[in-house]
Automatic annotation (TrEMBL):
This is Sugar ABC transporter ATP-binding protein. InterPro entries: AAA+_ATPase (IPR003593), ABC_transporter-like_ATP-bd (IPR003439), ABC_transporter-like_CS (IPR017871), ABC_transpr_MalK-like (IPR015855), ABC_transpr_MalK/UgpC-like (IPR047641), Mo/tungstate-bd_C_term_dom (IPR008995), NA-bd_OB-fold (IPR012340), P-loop_NTPase (IPR027417). Residues 4-235 form the ABC transporter domain. PROSITE patterns: ABC_TRANSPORTER_1, ABC_TRANSPORTER_2. The keyword Electron transport does not apply. SMART domains: AAA (SM00382). Residues 360-389 are annotated as: Disordered. Keywords: ATP-binding, Nucleotide-binding, Transport. The keyword Nucleotide-binding applies. It comes from Asanoa iriomotensis. One of its GO terms (molecular function) is ATP binding.
Length: 434
């Protein structure tokens, strides 16, 4: 219906805030694009510029290939859905849905028919006469969707449309909205800070941090092959284990990834060994998701790490063990919403300590402009900038309520083909495959 192209778009507010920094992004016809990132990363500003509610400070916005920088909002064939639904309280559901049609002077009979069609498609046909304050949160959300759909726009812009709803309803509406939008075939830009929404709803996800686009790809691509350390740390629960490793090359034999007390080995015939060998004598970051780690019996040969459980988290369907393996973790700050952390055994004080460390690191004064880009010159392996290091607590999945406790020794085998590699600037090291 509509394509969107952002070309080197920057937005600097009058107070000097760089909200969007040189972002280029294409949204294809009928595509469901999710803009994901923590609060303040510039998502809404991108959306508002596409809507014509903010002017870009630099760069071009193209709609259907035509420069739209100076096009007034009402000429953009766009419908917006907001977090607070923005319904008119004095109007009935039917009047709210039909309002855009009244504005565009659609005559009442045809207006009534279109409202009824949309309301019935959204399952709110029986509450057309009610006022918004007589509706549940989910129904209000549907009315807001109805008002957006009824205009038959070329592009939906949705700004956290589910964030005021409880988690059960969010999950339900997630599927409903993405199903509906796909059925209508309308291109959509959907803003959220919720990775579950992004990964479940999107055709492609664009991940932003501090105004800069970090990565764009299908949910499988951004999760499976994150472009930066930030994306790696942002996506997934539990978070990806990010460990500092020193690289040592034994030519024609293997590459050692020293993790402190222990090491992993990439055989020389593994194509990745050659790519990682460039970092001989240097430190890199390796990423290991919990799904790449399997508990094994003691003395199991192969790619195995040994550790002791520091603390456990019970999540009902599984437990997570956090292992001390004598390695150093790289922690990326500004992760926004953290994954839910249920009560842990013995971990509360330590996590409080880490949270305080993070706060201290964050309040370290203004951040240099160059740090806003992934190609920051600040090494992620120093304690400067937006990262810091601490003893690693390797997250490992266990069965629900396993027969272990803090202090228990545990061996985990590592799926070496699932390793991620990042250089000291936090950019993915291209290892030729994966
Ligand atoms: N009118 C404004 N003047 C100055 N700074 C602004 C203005 N609007 C937004 N900002 C700043 O621009 C940055 C990006 O804001 P934006 O609302 O786009 O972020 P966001 O990712 O959508 O966050 P949230 O999820 O909290 O809405 C923030 O630092 C914000 O404080």
């Amino acid at each position: 219906m509509t394509t969107v192209a952002l070309k080197d778009v920057t937005k600097i507010f009058p107070d000097g805030t760089v909200a969007v920094d040189n972002v280029s992004l294409d949204v294809n016809d009928g595509e469901f694009m999710v803009l994901l990132g923590p609060s303040g990363c510039g998502k809404s500003t991108v959306l508002r510029m596409v809507a014509g509610l903010e002017d870009p400070s630099a760069g071009a916005i193209l709609l259907d290939g035509e420069l739209a920088n100076d096009l007034p909002p009402r000429e953009r064939r766009i419908a917006m859905v907001f977090q607070d639904f923005a319904l008119y309280p004095h109007m009935s559901v039917g009047e709210n849905i039909g309002f855009p049609l009244r504005l565009s002077k659609v005559e009442p009979t045809s207006r009534g028919e279109r409202v009824a069609d949309v309301a019935s498609a959204l399952g709110i046909g029986d509450v057309l006469g009610r006022k918004p304050n007589q509706l549940s949160g989910g129904q209000r959300q549907r009315v807001a969707m109805g008002r957006a759909i009824v205009r038959r726009p070329g592009l939906f812009l949705m700004d956290e449309p589910l964030s005021n709803l409880d988690s059960g309803l969010r999950a339900e509406l997630r599927a409903e909205i993405s199903g509906l939008v796909r059925e209508l075939g309308v291109s959509t830009i959907y803003v959220t800070h919720d990775q579950a929404e992004a990964l479940t709803m999107a055709d492609r996800v664009a991940i932003m941090r501090r105004g800069v686009l970090q990565d764009v790809g299908t949910p499988t691509q951004v999760y499976g092959r994150p472009a930066t350390l930030y994306v790696a740390a942002f996506l997934g629960s539990p978070r990806m284990n990010l460990l500092e490793a020193s690289v040592y090359v034994h030519l024609d034999r293997y590459v050692t990834l020293n993790l402190g007390d222990q090491a992993l080995y990439l055989p020389w015939d593994d194509i990745r060994a050659r790519a990682v060998a460039h970092y001989h004598g240097e430190r890199i970051v390796i990423g290991l998701r919990a799904e790449a780690l399997t508990p094994v019996g003691p003395n199991t040969p192969g790619d195995v790490l040994q550790g002791r459980i520091r603390y456990l988290e019970h999540h009902g369907h599984e437990s997570l063990a956090f292992l001390d393996i004598g390695a150093t973790a790289v922690v990326v700050d500004e992760m926004g919403q953290a994954p839910a952390e249920p009560a842990a055994e013995g971990g509360a004080l330590r996590r409080f300590g880490h949270a305080m460390q993070r706060l201290t690191a964050r309040s370290g004064g203004p951040v240099a402009t160059e740090e806003r880009t992934s190609r920051s010159r600040t090494s992620v392996l120093s304690d400067e900038g937006r990262h810091h290091r601490r003893p690693a607590e390797l997250a490992v999945r266990l069965a629900p309520y396993p027969n272990v406790q803090p202090g228990t020794a545990l061996s985990v085998s590592v799926r070496m083909d699932a390793l991620h590699f990042f250089d000291d600037r936090g950019d993915r090291i291209d290892v030729g495959w994966r």
